[in-house]
Amino acid sequence: MASETGKTPRTVALFATCLADLVRPSVAFASVRLLEAAGCRVDVPAAQTCCGQPAYNSGDRKHAARIARRTVRAFRGYEWIVVPSGSCAGMLRRHYADLLGDDEGFGERVWELTSFLVDVCGFQDVRARWPMTAVYHDSCAGLRELGVKDQPRALLAMVEGLELAELPDAEVCCGFGGTFCVKYPDISTAMVRDKAAAVKSSGAGALLAGDLGCLMNMAGRLSREGSPVEVRHVAEVLAGMADEVPPL
Q1: Domain boundaries, the chain
Q2: In the 8-state DSSP scheme, what is residue 158?
Q3: Contact, 150 vs 138, CB < 8 A?
Q4: 38-93 pLDDT, tens per residue?
Q5: Does the global pTM surpass 0.85?
Q6: For 107, which DSSP code?
Q7: Taking the CB of the first residue and of the last residue of the chain, which one, N or C, has fewer CB atoms within 10 A?
Q8: What is the Cα–Cα distance from 168 to 136, expressed in whole angstroms?
């Protein structure tokens, strides 16, 4: 079926991620909405599971490789695999080759959501409205493994009514780091405490990011400190869903 522009739409596969599936489904729905607005047809392979990052980060390469092989099979045949998480996208794009050796070029087909919208689709048709002052946190994996920094900011600049301010030390880790927060809880707590202080000092009403692990960590700390700052995934805002679903 042709799109409104007369071009055959790209068929992309959405890797929804565990956290979106189990904790925040609105992120997956927002991702589908955005990809369709960018002229894509979206499939969500039913055989997908966790990306294997917890096992990989814990040194369990045997089970991580088993998960990776299953993921590669589930997404075989798709030219583009889009992930609304810098952390999971980094695992699929950068670390599967380390686990599997010849991964059939799998990693080259994996894109973080905002990077895919900007760098592949050239998407400029954000129609969301959200009168809010917000800051954006750069997740470690998205920024350092995938080079995701300007893309979410470019898309958020198109949201009507949104004033995006720069978060002090936006590139500093929030302290989550997957299993890092379990292995080094005292250090992790100190890091997220500093991040929460930076968010509150900015005077912004909302905190945005592209990785649910980071968002849940920061939302939990801000909530425990009684902060009214809203915490949301960037996809929810770009898809116009900020008024449809509550913040984290």
Answers
A1: 10-119, 125-238
A2: T
A3: no
A4: 999 999 999 999 999 999 999 999 999 999 999 999 999 999 999 999 999 999 99
A5: yes
A6: G
A7: N
A8: 10
Nearest to 137 by CA among 188, 182, 185, 204: 204
Q: Do domains 10-119 and 125-238 have the same CATH topology?
A: yes
Q: Mind listing the pLDDT tens digit for each residue in 150-160?
A: 999 999 999 99
User: Residue 129 forms beta bridges with which residues?
Assistant: 160
3-state secondary structure 28-43: HHHHHHHHHHCCEEEE
Place of tokens 């004033």: 163
Per-residue pLDDT of 88-98, as tens digits, reads 999 999 999 99
Task: Judge whether 101 and 107 are in contact, CB under 8 Å.
Answer: no
DSSP H or E segment with residue 83: strand 80-83
Structure tokens at 148: 């995701």
How many Å apart are CA 67 and CA 13, to the nearest integer? 18
Residue range 10-119 in CATH 2.60.40: no
Q: Which of 87, 233, 237 is nearest to 161 (CA)?
A: 237
Cβ pair 17, 84 in contact under 8 A: yes
- Distance (Å, whole) CA 192 – CA 164: 21
Cα separations in angstroms, 58 against 188, 191, 209: 17, 21, 25
Residue recorded with tokens 């071009």 = 7
Q: Biggest alpha carbon distance in the chain?
A: 56
CATH topology assigned to domain 125-238 = Rossmann fold (3.40.50)
DSSP H helices in the chain:
18-22, 25-37, 53-57, 61-74, 86-90, 96-100, 113-115, 140, 146, 150-156, 180-183, 185-202, 212-224, 234-238
